Amino acid sequence: MGYDAVLLLSFGGPERPEDVLPFLQNVTRGRRVPPERLAEVAEHYQHFGGVSPINDQCRALLAAMRAEFDRHQLDTPVYWGNRNWHPMLADTLAQARDDGVESAVAFVTSPYGSYSSCRQYLEDIAAARAAVGPRAPVVHKLRHYHDHPGLVEPFADGVRQALASLAPAPREATRLVFTAHSIPVEMAECAGPEGGRYEAQLAETAALVAAAAAPDLPYDLVWQSRSGPPQVPWLEPDINDHLGTLAEQGVGAVAVSPIGFISDHLEVMWDLDTEAADTAKQLGLEYARAATPGTDPRFVAMIRELVQERMVPEGDHPARRMGTLPVWDTCLSHCCQSRSAPRG
Ligand SMILES: CC1=C(CCC(=O)O)c2cc3nc(cc4[nH]c(cc5[nH]c(cc1n2)c(C)c5CCC(=O)O)c(CCC(=O)O)c4C)C(CCC(=O)O)=C3C
Ligand SMILES: [Fe+2]
């Protein structure tokens, strides 16, 4: 089907010190995040002057999408809305409606499936449309892109550059470590239509990036940015604990690639560039953090390709994929639905 607009849909982040608390309240409303954890994360944001990098990264991506679409005679307007901070999705959809938009296709800044990274964005769309009312544009989310070459190749370049920046060391003493945002084990078990999809997609992305960048190097997939109360199990090991294990095993140098994030979010700048880098230093490990795609031209072209794949029928723009896990355009109603605590 045709769409009148393309929507960039993201998480949102504070842009001034006084935004930090209301932003965190938006993120954690109805969630079980202890106040101690919230205070800690507020400090991470204040460490960077109360400004999250994520909104400027979205502005840059939006501009790059416009230029890329123009180069390919795709004159569809592009809009940007967030889950947790301005521009809020409901305001964006109200503006789109005023502009005469009846339908939009949404690119979400997370490639993977799980409640937090996929279904919650579908709920955000439904809630924003309900807030806008009867003439709200219909919004369909684009498919997952965890194995698209436009995601895998920029990450692979990042890994190559990170490895090149480490002092030459025997291959056995060098390790490639992929990270993604930890999620509660229960959320991981319910991810996708049959469960386990978040980890399965990340494992596929890790394997594709490793095969492209460093096929002879051992690698691991571990987790970062754990939240929630301590008694609730989340995916482990944490990157910091894992660095300790590697040091014990005689590893001397690590390249860390945050495949869970498409740009250098605050989690990348704090949990990796500040905390994990510090852990590595204390352990005497050489440490290099690999780049995220950001506005890499191949990543921006991927967004245009995903839009064309969806808008131009009859296989004129076949899906470019490197992996074998199934992908689909429309999630089933039970996809990523929690067993114990229905959310939303
Ligand atoms: C899977 C996943 C992604 C990747 C997919 C995607 O990109 O969407 C992601 C991204 C992000 N998470 C972000 C920020 C936060 N996430 C939090 C809390 C949580 N994240 C969770 C999961 C994820 N989060 C979960 C299960 C929670 C617990 C509360 C809940 O069940 O919802 C909290 C509360 C404090 C805390 O950390 O406890 C904050 C501030 C930012 C913005 C960063 C910036 O400003 O640059 C981004 C991109
Ligand atoms: Fe998060």
UniProtKB/TrEMBL annotation:
Question: Pathway, per Swiss-Prot/TrEMBL?
Answer: Porphyrin-containing compound metabolism; protoheme biosynthesis
| UniProtKB keywords | Cytoplasm, Heme biosynthesis, Iron, Lyase, Metal-binding, Porphyrin biosynthesis
Gene Ontology annotations for the cellular component aspect, listed alphabetically = cytoplasm
One example of the protein's molecular function in GO is:
metal ion binding
Chief location category: cytoplasm
Catalyses which reaction?
Answer: Fe-coproporphyrin III + 2 H(+) = coproporphyrin III + Fe(2+)
Broad EC category: lyase
- The entry marks the following residues as binding Fe-coproporphyrin III, namely 52, 121
Q: Which domain of life does the protein's organism represent?
A: Bacteria
Tell whether Plastid is among the UniProt keywords: no
Q: Is Iron among the key words of this record?
A: yes
Q: Alphabetically, which GO biological process terms does the record hold?
A: heme biosynthetic process
Q: Where in the cell is it found?
A: Cytoplasm
Q: Which residues bind Fe(2+)?
A: 181, 267
Assigned EC number: 4.99.1.9
PANTHER family in UniProt = FERROCHELATASE (PTHR11108), FERROCHELATASE, MITOCHONDRIAL (PTHR11108:SF1)
What family does this chain come from, according to its entry? Answer: Belongs to the ferrochelatase family.
The protein's role, per its UniProt record: Involved in coproporphyrin-dependent heme b biosynthesis. Catalyzes the insertion of ferrous iron into coproporphyrin III to form Fe-coproporphyrin III.
The identity of this protein, by name, is Coproporphyrin III ferrochelatase
Write down the species.
Natronosporangium hydrolyticum
Tell me the organism's taxonomic lineage: Bacteria, Bacillati, Actinomycetota, Actinomycetes, Micromonosporales
